[in-house]
Write a structure and sequence with these properties.
Distance between the termini: 75 Å
Largest sheet: none
Helix content: over 70%
Strand content: under 5%
Number of strands: 0
Structural class: mainly alpha
Shape: globular
């Protein structure tokens, strides 16, 4: 029976890592390490704390931050459907490995390309503007 629980626990931790990436990133790699380590070591408590902090950082106002909060909430709800009903209260260091794998993979696949696209555009405008001044 333990063989069946280990893969499901690993999958739950992987999904929690993906949720951690969504919660802790907005415009670049500025992770909130205290939130992430709590999610990895104490999943039940960590997820509750992470969601509360996310909602506090993105107040329900109109504009970019409201749209970001709605996107985060929708994506987290999609991923939470795959989580077990009750999360463990504490996990060992080896059980945390899938959490960090999910976190890194979601960042690389989903968030980094969007962030990179948004960040590169203003940098290119600055380079073009500085070239125009140098030639004048």
């Amino acid at each position: 029976m333990q063989l069946h629980s280990e893969p499901s626990m690993a999958r739950a931790m992987y999904i929690l890592g993906q949720i951690g990436a969504i919660i802790c990133h907005e415009r670049g790699p500025r992770p909130q390490t205290n939130v992430l380590t709590t999610m990895a070591s104490r999943p039940a408590e960590g997820l509750t704390i992470a969601l509360a902090e996310m909602n506090a950082q993105c107040p329900p106002q109109r504009g970019h931050r409201r749209a970001l909060l709605q996107w985060k909430q929708n994506e987290i709800q999609r991923l939470r459907r795959a989580l077990p009903v009750s999360l463990p209260t504490a996990v060992c260091a080896q059980t945390q490995m899938p959490f960090w794998a999910g976190y890194c993979q979601y960042w690389e696949d989903m968030l980094k390309p969007q962030i990179g696209h948004d960040v590169d555009r203003p940098a290119l405008r600055l380079i073009d503007a500085s070239r125009g001044r140098a030639g004048a």
